[in-house]
Amino acid sequence: MPIKIVEGLPVKKRLEQENVFTIDASRATTQDIRPIRILILNLMPKKEETELHLLRLLGNTPLQIDIEFLYTETHKSKNTPTSHLHKYYRTFDEIKEERFDGMIVTGAPVEKLDFNQVDYINELEAILKWSETHVFSRFFICWGAQHALNYYYQFDKISLSSKLFGVFKYKNILPTHPLMRGFDDQFEVPHSRHTRMDFSTLDKHPELKVLSVHPDFGPDILSTEDSRELYIFGHLEYERNTLQNEYIRDIEKGADIGMPHNYFPDDNSNNEPYFNWKSHGHLLFNNWLNETYQNTYYDLNDLEK
């Protein structure tokens, strides 16, 4: 089944070339089914790149999915034209009377800042508060996960001595969990971050379940007991060359950056990177969509009851 996107979204042509099925809003109105509504709060600077990453994964499902993109009005985007945001995205004021089956909150390149230093933090927290009664299931990625865990459970963020950069092997510690269905015992996850969460008080929150873990870096995927909140610090949505592009960008800027771990064959940046996390990216997103679809209310107005 296709994903429904805004009429004319530029990445549509790329998706169709890859056989990711899409449908425009005008055609979707003729479908006599109950689609699943997903809101994507895109906090990444290169929004079209993130659109492609997420839509590729969301489009690999038998469900019809209605996608809405949301941006924060209180932040001035430097990498995405305002015209693109006004045409293909909506603001919080425009959607706050609506309800959604699921919401994805992306990462953001602000992790070195304290949470209260982020210029759109008040708007973000208003969106999170609203989502408690207007969204059934929520999926938080990287910095989005860090902030949500701080906001809801008061976990602190800790700076790393060096950037966690590369592809790392994590252990699946709850293989029977519905969000980990189909995962291997060990699987690779791309990471690109300067901070981690302090989980020293995790045992005080039995409602949080750790689904995957690294012996040195700790938890990566967590969910609530009811699976309605999903957190991941890595980037299973990344494409083959995402870390490569980031590495080249940092080198050109003169940044003190090491080569991404376990990424380039023979640690030679002239070699095409390995792409050894793709299937698990599809699994995680499909499992989340399936759990949302199986458990959400048919009538989303019941969310507030």
Write the layout of secondary structure elements.
Blueprint lengths: L2 E3 L6 H6 L4 E3 H4 L7 E6 L5 H12 L6 E6 L11 H7 E2 L1 H4 L4 E6 L15 H14 E7 L1 H11 L3 E16 L13 E12 L10 E7 L3 E7 L4 E4 L9 H11 L25 H18 L10
Parallel strand pairs: 1-2, 1-4, 3-4, 3-6, 4-5, 6-7, 7-12
Antiparallel strand pairs: 8-9, 8-10, 10-11, 11-12
* SS summary, helix count: 9
Biggest sheet, open or closed, and with what strands and sense? 12 strands, mixed
The ordered H/E elements are EHEHEHEHEHEHEHEEEEEHH
Q: What percentage of amino acids are in beta strands?
A: 25-35%
Distance from N terminus to C terminus (CA atoms, Å) equals: 31 Å
Unreliable segments of 5+ consecutive residues? none
The level of helicity is 25-40%
Radius of gyration: 19 Å
Large-scale geometry: globular
Round the mean pLDDT to the nearest integer and report it. Answer: 91
Structural class: alpha/beta
Strand count: 12
